[in-house]
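Our preliminary data section would be incomplete without showing what the modeling component actually yields. Below, a chain of 467 amino acids is followed by its predicted structure, encoded as tokens that our downstream tools consume directly.
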Amino acid sequence: MKFTTLRHAATATGNRSSMAAGARHGRPMRAGAILAAAALAGGLAACGSSSSGGSSSGGSSGGASGGKLTVADVAPFSGVDAALGPTYLASCYGATAAVNQAGGVLGHTLTCKSVDTRGDPADAVPAVNQMFASTPNLALVIGCTSDEAASVAPVINAHKMAMFCMTGQSEFSNVSYPYFYRLVPPDLEESYAMVAIAQQLHYKRVALAFGNDIGSQTFIQPAVSALKKAGITLATNQTLDLKATTFRSEAEAIVHSHPDAIMTEALGAADPTLFSEIKQLNGGKMIPVIGTSAAISPAFFKSSAAAVGASAFVSGFHADNLVVESSGPAYQAFSKALLSQQGKVPGATGNFTTYLSAPGGVHLYDGINLAALAMIMSKSTSPSVYGPDIVKIGNGVPGATVCYSFAQCATSLKAGKAIRYEGPGGPTNFDSHHDSTGIFQVDTYTPSGQVKVTGNLTAAQLRALAG
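Predicted structure:
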């Protein structure tokens, strides 16, 4: 099936500036709850740190040289979402290695630090407080997934620390944190993208199978609504307990509902186990799968291919994803930086080249570059000083020099030129909430685990499915 190709960002629904593929998942926390969390953030931060406000950021207020600056990867490294942390860490290793090779930032080198949230807000908040207490030279936070973002973003913001988060929670489109930046969209848009893929493939009946974690559950209601608008029958809606070791009853319900495809996100061992049991119950045949962007992961491919066989898995698999460059100067710099870290990233498994397409691998690389360049532009490593320049560098100004890597952009900055950074995630367009997104692409796998882009989805397709 050939998909419509479109390379330009377009206007999104609601408060979004453009349509895009989703990040790993959002959580249904209302804006009021996020505001309440923000009100408590100062107290939470004070309880877990010996310093508060700007002093806890560890960044230099000026351009004094020497020492290391830390980029913290705040994400699950254990629990059912444990594959997310290493994905982001691979990006951090690649980006910081390239920055250091190009001379560092204001005389500083960058290093990466893992902060395990375990995918649970109850564990994430003390972990983040401990991070601030024990990391005096902290300059940037990346990661902060939907598992914990609603709880930790207010704490990080209270410490006046810049963060690039991989959360799809729609509430962040409406609640502003001065230190929050996002290159990915709300999850409801990703639900529309999955349904748009089903439309393109002419599926008439679709089953849903999402994990019982809060983040995965947020996909369901938008998907149900979009399926109805598309005239696609909902065959069955199954919830998967991520702690279970078998899904035979759910697999039976799916097989007996005779769907053309299954739309799913259930991380850890859940989806591969479900796929295996479906194949057993379906006469040795897999039912086609439409996954979220979280399925573009070395760990997910490895476990799914092992469960049902690589050829069987890839034969009917599609996933939505954020559009990423696969050629050109930005991609060349990114791939060189990331692949230089192969075999060096703790916890990284499977085909390392998949990280070149994983949302966290691409967009956190861009985020780190934007922050490092903003430090040079502002002559400061303090987020309260360099933060506004992230938007200036990402959005550019008339006459700005477009550049595609940290090294190239830093050279132009030092020559006194205005720049616009364009990385492998494409050009940015930050709005007043520091959100910037692009458009969706549709990904498949080869039997060896290489990611293939089959085309893009237009904003018009998604608007037609929006509630």
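Residues 359-378 form the longest helix (20 residues). Residues 187-324+438-465 form a domain with the Rossmann fold fold (CATH 3.40.50.2300). Preliminary results of this kind motivate Aim 1 of the renewal.
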